[in-house]
Q: What sequence folds into this?
């Protein structure tokens, strides 16, 4: 967390450095269980370690964005992986997507979006902050005609994203992951257009950091 991207009111948006990956894993696991089960099920530390190792494996090809409060605590997160096709994507370790992946043209640039998490303590600001992270993270896909976004998405969040205007398609059935039902989905540039056109004004309201 060493290069500020922008600020929105009292919140700051940062890219996450490798040093803070374990802190991110703790935040993601904790928030998933708080939102979906109201309690930590199973061994919390072992779940955090699994998430941490997964993020460490893909960090070289990742962009992780977080929002912090004034005291530096993480209150919102999102991760974007530019898939090299050399390693299994995180969602491939849980879902059988071989036929879908094999059907994709080699020219298609594939992004994997994950680690959506928003702390309940931000209240009504949570949805706005989440939209901002989506705008920043999905911009490379929106600005290309041939990119594809893959998402391992919590089913509750899936409904929210669709209500926000993101057009996404399912790639298979759901399973439980980190305490909630999760479905593999994908979105094209056209599927993101409505969301961007409706919400890009939020980025204009941010105070952009000067390098």
A:
């Amino acid at each position: 967390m060493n290069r500020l991207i922008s600020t929105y009111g009292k919140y700051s948006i940062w890219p996450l450095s490798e040093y803070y990956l374990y802190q991110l894993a703790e935040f993601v696991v904790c928030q998933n269980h708080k939102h979906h089960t109201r309690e930590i099920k199973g061994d919390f530390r072992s779940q955090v370690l699994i998430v941490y190792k997964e993020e460490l494996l893909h960090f070289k090809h990742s962009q992780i964005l977080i929002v912090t409060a004034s005291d530096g605590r993480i209150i919102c997160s999102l991760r974007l992986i530019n898939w090299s096709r050399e390693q299994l994507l995180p969602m491939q370790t849980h879902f059988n997507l071989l036929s879908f992946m094999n059907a994709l043209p080699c020219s298609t640039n594939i992004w994997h979006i994950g680690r959506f998490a928003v702390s309940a303590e931000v209240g009504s600001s949570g949805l706005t902050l989440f939209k901002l992270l989506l705008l920043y993270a999905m911009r490379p896909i929106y600005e290309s005609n041939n990119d594809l976004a893959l998402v391992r998405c919590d089913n509750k969040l899936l409904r929210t994203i669709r209500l926000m205007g993101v057009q996404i398609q399912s790639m298979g059935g759901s399973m439980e992951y980190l305490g909630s039902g999760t479905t593999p989905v994908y979105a094209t540039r056209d599927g993101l257009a409505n969301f961007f056109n409706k919400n890009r004004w939020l980025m204009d309201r941010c105070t952009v950091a000067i390098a």
About this structure: The mean pLDDT is 83.
